[in-house]
Amino acid sequence: MEALNIVLLEPEIPANTGNIGRSCVATGSRLHLIKPLGFSLEEKHLRRAGLDYWPRLDVTVYEDFADFLSRNPGARLFFLTTKARRTYAEAAFSPGDFLVFGRESAGIPEEILLAHEESCLRIPMVPDNRSLNLSNSVAIVLYEAMRQLDFPGLEGRGELHRLHWRKANEQNL
User: Fold this and answer.
1) Residue 46 is part of which domain span?
2) The pTM is what?
3) CATH classification of the domain holding 84
4) Is the distance from CB of 38 to CB of 27 less than 8 angstroms?
5) Closest listed residue to residue 89, CA positions, set 143, 28, 133, 42
6) Strands 77-80 and 30-34
7) Residues of the chain scoring pLDDT < 50
8) Is the separation of the CB atoms in 39 and 12 below 8 Å?
9) Would you give the distance in Å from CA 123 to the centre of its chain?
10) Exposure check for the chain: N or C terminus, fewer CB within 10 A?
């Protein structure tokens, strides 16, 4: 199945990008970073947040939004913004979709949002709340998309390390 794609448009905080990279590795998703970046990809905070996952990350860097669009023709894009009229829960996600998130301080430029009005989604929040943390926002929408696709390629069951789970008929307490 084709991987989901997380797109960060001009991210500013290395720890957020590192955490998002870790989420991408954990879900088999690809990360797309659109310059300018507010940090170096060699920065220790970025690598620390990604821990040992960073070398396994499928990441592509673009010079600007136009470069991103030209290198991903026909991409199905969803733009996550507090300004959208519908929520991410109303979207029907498909394999290969691109989930676009803006920079921490300003989000996605309104010119881009207006050009893609029908593809804009929001995460519901109480009134007068500015926004959620970027890495939290990515995780919320990414896992909803994965849920809709029945968590392709992900392990659905875990095991204890030292002990064993009770049998299924004993778990109904």
Assistant:
1) 5-170
2) 0.91
3) 3.40.1280.10
4) no
5) 143
6) unpaired
7) 169, 173
8) yes
9) 13
10) C
